[in-house]
Amino acid sequence: MSEPEATQATPEPAKHDKTAPEDRRIGVYICHCGGNISDYVDVEAVRDALADEPNVVISDDPIFACSDGTQQDMIQAIKANGLDGLVVASCSPKLHQTTFRNVSKRADMNPYAYTQVNVREQASWVHQHDKAGATEKVIGLVRSGVAKSRLSDELVPLRVNTVPRTLVIGGGIAGLRAAKGLADLGIDAILIERQPELGGWVGKLGAMFPHEDSGKEQVATLIDEVKDRRDVTVYTAAELTSKAGSFGNYEVEITLHREGGDKVLNLEVGSIIVATGFDSYNPDDGEYGYGMDGVVTLPQFKELVDATGSGPLSYNGRPVRSVAYIYCVGSRQEAGGNEYCSKYCCTAAIHASSLVSSLDPGIRQYHLYRDIRAYGRNELTYNESREAGSVYVKFDPDTPPEVAKLDSGVLGVTVTDLLTGHAELTLPVDLVVLVTGMVPRENKTLIDLLKLPLGSDGFFNEIHPKLRPVETVVDGVMIAGCCQAPRTMGESVSAGLAAVAQSAALLKKGFAELEPLVAVVDPDKCTGSGECLTACPYDSITSIEWDGRQIASVDPATCKGCGGCIPVCGADAIDLLGYTDEQMKAAIEELVVTEMPVKEPVA
Q1: Superfamily for the 165-277+441-508 domain
Q2: Residue 384 CB: number of other CB atoms within 10 A?
């Protein structure tokens, strides 16, 4: 069977005439969820209550609705009973909405006639001590889902042509590896880097754990491999300055900063991979003595060690005979600061101290820490560091170390050691290393251009950390590496390759299908007020001329179906396919309690 011809998205998503509500045939499945639901909800009572609901042909209660066996049973039941609607009452749509939409497809039923009702998070888990109340609530929620499905349209996904070219933003380790991977799959890659040189942070480093390979050498090898690919075009001192169009057909403007003046390139790309990396935390003046001579950050110290070679370690011309490392500087802070653990810093500091020991085993090294988080194989590096003579001192985060100049002129670090009966120690040292973590890189222009979502920590946010780890809510825009979270080099490369795989899956077919759950405008109702244009966060709504007047028009290829335009329309001219006013009103009415019990007045 040949593939259908790919076409551009039409001005309005395609949909079939919907079956009359009274003729709908709907299947309802209430999941036990292995006890997560059935321990707190009388699932059989819900099943029996829904069996008599209008248009409900099947009402069943499987132990695990998501199991392969139950999915096959659903497919057979849909086909045998001619179902044109499906309601599954189980867990969050975030987990299994795609699962049951695929069940609908495999049964030749329109997947947008499926409704998932979240009764685990919204009922069983929040009403564990009120089984009767939880059961009544679930019956109402499932009836509400049936009412919504009863009025559903047979929507058809939007189909758009795709350009087999990807823009990779960021020339660090993740971006370089992504560009190489795309070229190996036959997809053109345009790699842009804001700095004059490629390589990012890794390109500045010497020996790295766990194999002592030089970061500079690894990046140099990767750059050579990228340059050998004819399908990769690299622009340094370049940045994205404009984006238009829709997924599969993005029109991007790249500004090249050159000595003779800026140059502008206009390109078409099918997808975008953002691998813009991170910044290292920059301590405030006076934070753990930062700003004092001899107090440096971990990246500055690593640069010092790498530059030493085989010679003696020195700082500003003075020999270094003792070093104190203060951990978690800029990480795991109080509310309002960087509350997250930066993940890599413990091992990076321990590895740096091991390099110092290899230079001169006589250098005294003190590690002042809250917790050591050298996970997995990194635990071996931690043990080697202790065996080489490093001293580890655990402090209470409520009484962190203090750094000051001693009368002798050297730095003194005062710390209360929890491992020696809360003894207060003052350590005279030549150098204090603040073990700083990763922080999100400032790039407001890029965030605004791509509409990139940010997490509470300030890093870019994926749709789902396990099921969709590199995709964003913006179709065709992927994230990879440390712009997403603190990561090691290996983890960044893995994320870059995941973004490559996702791009290839979308672009190699030559077309892509987009969700039809988008806003639509009724031209007869629209007054052209323009309120919806400013309300749309994705710039999907424009003003067009229609029958001699200005009305709003939604681009379905860029609309995300967020619904932000609907409440601002005073003419009630906008609706959201899949969640129409008619559907939502019917769903709400099923939840309304018509008779409230009368309480006796309190004496």
Answers
A1: FAD/NAD(P)-binding domain (3.50.50.60)
A2: 15
Confidence of residue 598 (pLDDT cuts 50, 70, 90): very low
Radius of gyration over every alpha carbon of the chain, rounded to an integer in angstroms: 30
* 297 three-state secondary structure: strand
Q: Which whole-number Å values give the CA distances from 584 to 27, 94, 101, 115, 150, in the listed order? A: 20, 20, 20, 12, 11
Domain boundaries, the chain: 1-14+514-603, 19-152, 165-277+441-508, 287-437
Q: How many CA atoms lie within 13 A of 531 on its CB side?
A: 14
| Topology agreement, domain 165-277+441-508 and domain 287-437 | yes
Paired sense of beta strands 411-417 and 423-429, if any: antiparallel
Asked if residues 85 and 55 have their Cβ atoms less than 8 Å apart, the reply is: yes
User: Which token pair is 424?
Assistant: 């207060």
d(CA 139, CA 53): 11
Task: Give pTM, 2 decimals.
Answer: 0.80
DSSP letters of 333-372?
-STTS--S--SSHHHHHHHHHHHHHHH-TTSEEEEEES--
Amino acid (1-letter code) at residue 15: K
Q: Are 206 and 181 in contact (CB under 8 A)?
A: no
CA 145 to chain centre: 29
Q: How far apart are CA 243 and CA 274, in angstroms?
A: 14
The first and second tokens of residue 133, run together, are 């109340």
pLDDT digits (tens, 9 = 90+) for 307-325: 998 789 999 999 999 999 9
What is the C-alpha separation between 48 and 46, in angstroms, rounded? Answer: 5
Q: What is the DSSP letter of 111?
A: G
Tokens representing 170 are 């960021």
Cβ 450 vs Cβ 243: under 8 Å: yes
Which two structure tokens, joined as six digits, stand for 166?
Answer: 């990807």
The residue length of the chain stands at: 603
Whole-number Å distance between alpha carbons of 557 and 570: 25
Fold exhibited by the domain 1-14+514-603: Alpha-Beta Plaits (3.30.70)
Q: Say yes or no: domain 287-437 is CATH 3.50.50.60.
A: yes
- Beta bridge partner(s), residue 167: 190, 272
The 3-state DSSP class for residue 553 equals: strand
- Give φ, ψ of 390 to 5 degrees: -65, 140
What's the mean pLDDT in 519-527?
A: 94
Measured distance CA(286)–CA(97) in Å, rounded: 52
Is the CATH number of domain 19-152 3.40.50?
yes
Cα–Cα distance measured from residue 396 to residue 437, given in angstroms and rounded to the nearest whole number: 19
Neighbours of 211 (CB within 10 A): 7
Predicted confidence (pLDDT) at residue 511 exceeds the cutoff of 50:
yes
**Cα 11 to Cα 553: distance, rounded to the nearest angstrom:** 8
**Residue 440 is encoded by which pair of tokens?**
């999100």
Q: What is the C-alpha to C-alpha distance for residues 216 and 202, in angstroms, rounded to an integer?
A: 7
